[in-house]
Amino acid sequence: MAGKKPWAGRFSQATHKAVEEFTVSLHFDHKLYTYDIQGSIAHCRMLARQKIIAAGEAKKIIAGLEAIRRELDAGKLSLRPEFEDIHMLIESRLIEKIGPVGGKLHTARSRNDQIALDISLYLRDAVRGTIALIEAAQKALLGLAEKNIDAVLPGFTHMQHAQPVLLAHHLLAYFEMLDRDRDRLEGCFVRVNRMPLGAGALAGTPHPVDREYVAKLLGYPEVTRNSMDTVADRDTQIEYCSCAAIIMMHLSRLCEELVIWMSPEFQFIDIADAFCTGSSIMPQKKNPDVAELVRGKTGRVYGNLMSLFTLLKSLPLAYNRDLQEDKIALFDTVETVQSCLNIMALMLPEVKVNKGRMRSATQSGFLTATDLADYLVSKKMPFRTAHEVVGKVVGHCVHMGKSLWDMSLAELQRFSPVFKADVMGWLTIDASVNSRKCIGGTGTAAVKKALAAARAGLKKRKKP
What we know:
This protein is mainly alpha-helical and about 475 residues long. It has 18 helices and four strands.
């Protein structure tokens, strides 16, 4: 394959080898070859349909592109730096295979709108793939919740015992987070799903192209509306990476809890050996490395998002070579978030819950203190007054080394005559949990409905 640059006509000197090595993107944008060929075939069909090139020429070009795809699939094309990028590698190889007619493929397009199309096609698949993996992680959360519907643990605020909750309710919180993550990606898909080809370098093309026809061939419902915007912006990549950063934040929070819950101080859960590692020096260690790595990779995705923001923030219209750097952050983000979602979907079903340990942890921290205040409110006492009364009861218990349910009715009545014999039914952990019957509450009946609704919702959701 010849090393002459397709744009060399204006230049009197060959490109310096150091410049070739500095400017090459082929070592990372070769990932786009299937999309580049897919877009080129659609473009070629349109050129023939519009009689911009002959039908026979189009047939020859398409056959050549399909042969190149097979070569790339098999790893038979060398990714040499003189070819700059995946577009030039494919075009150069096409001309080598079928002769000068291969040079007609680039009629009515630029590498600027060509890469915009490649990224758009890649992003459509990335969004679809990420949504599928979110759903797999959601199903894993539901499975773990359903299997442990009777598990109760302390709910925390400020990392202090607050109120008792069902583990299933706790896990459903992460289901909801991932559901919103999916919503964001579905919105992102709408903006990604606009066909860019036809924008040219920045001003469109004078050739009688049919952009809508290309869009139809590639499965797009519409085309982009402004040629300069099409080649100059990368906001859909930023949007995907922003969605990915939020997903990773949610996964990181869940992993932080798994790490804490597996510690000897908590012993709420155990993660299967297959998803843990050992220590090179301490034989007794069983480390939750998968959860820790997901937590750690979150910062990497955040960094990629900030990289893209910084890349775009000062670029004048239209295309600038700076934009070559966008794909590094995008590819890494897609691979990272998808690998993390995948490993979470595999690991969560292998989490064993220590229900006894969780329940025993609810015996400290006065978790039913709010229930005691709510009891007084049910007897028509103003909540702020009830709060003060129960605060004094708790202070007394701390001083005496007692739990709330150790208090006798007579002792409680020293703090308020409103307390009656029925108060004892408000103080148990199960009574506290099951009193929260409202939609979104932790009561068993409410949580069972929420689990059923979540299952049904996953079945109804349409994939983009």
